[in-house]
């Protein structure tokens, strides 16, 4: 029976399955069936400094499937830089919980590819899985995480496209013992017919944890 994490945010309450399913289905179908945004999944995953049933379920699943990716209910689209906008990075609009009643449009500046790190303002831009900052080396990322009181083993990578065209892309996350348990990427191709290692969290079963943020 599928177990769930209940995540409570200022925007909504959501039940997120601890299991990823639908492997091999088209990205469009995975996106349409995905119940949670990347930020909501992250909130469940990192709860209690990563000591929780959600993170443990991910680890257990990795023993069965050494590499897997999940599609979130998020879309990224290209935008023009705003007048006076401060900071480097690629200007994008992150559409969180896309095509739901709780949709949010969040303008971000996506940093260069690299390992995401903790900052004084947190790791990700609120409501997204876009890191505030990345560093080029795993060693530096681990040092930054541990200095913030996080387990160094959680060090993970951030992927994005070099250039974004007019078509939207899906936000997703991968788990891989070699490259990190919470790799995030803004490069899901909506036209993909599917891949055996790519699934999503679909919806039903007992709630085993509750997170409020």
What features would you highlight for this structure?
12 strands, 20% helix, three-stranded mixed sheet, 33% strand, 213 residues, single chain, alpha+beta
Structural class: alpha+beta
What is the share of helical residues? 10-25%
Count every helix, treating DSSP H or I runs of 4 or more residues as helices.
4
Give the SSE string. Answer: EEHHHEEEEEHEEEEE
Q: Give unreliable regions as ranges.
A: none
Q: How many structural domains in the coordinates? A: 1
Q: Tell me how many strands there are.
A: 12
Largest sheet: 9 strands, mixed
Mean pLDDT: 93
Cα(first) to Cα(last) distance is: 27 Å
Q: What is the global morphology? A: globular
Strand content: 25-35%
Round the Cα radius of gyration to an integer and report it: 16 Å
């Amino acid at each position: 029976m599928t177990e769930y994490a209940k995540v409570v945010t200022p925007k909504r309450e959501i039940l997120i399955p601890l299991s990823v399913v639908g492997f091999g289905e088209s990205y469009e179908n995975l996106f349409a069936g995905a119940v949670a945004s990347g930020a909501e999944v992250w909130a469940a995953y990192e709860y209690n400094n990563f000591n929780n049933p959600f993170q443990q379920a991910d680890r257990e699943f990795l023993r069965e499937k050494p590499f897997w990716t999940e599609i979130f209910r998020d879309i990224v689209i290209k935008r023009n830089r705003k007048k006076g906008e401060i900071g480097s990075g690629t200007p994008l609009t992150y559409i969180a919980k896309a095509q739901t009643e709780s949709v949010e449009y969040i303008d971000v500046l996506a940093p260069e590819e690299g390992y995401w790190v903790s900052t004084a303002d947190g790791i990700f831009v609120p409501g997204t899985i876009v890191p505030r900052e990345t560093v080029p080396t795993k060693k530096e990322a681990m040092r930054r995480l541990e200095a913030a009181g996080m387990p160094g083993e959680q060090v993970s990578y951030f992927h994005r496209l070099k250039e974004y065209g007019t078509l939207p892309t899906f936000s997703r996350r991968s788990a891989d013992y070699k490259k990190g348990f919470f790799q995030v990427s803004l490069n899901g191709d909506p036209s993909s017919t599917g891949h055996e290692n790519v699934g999503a969290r679909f919806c039903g079963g007992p709630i085993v944890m509750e997170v409020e943020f």
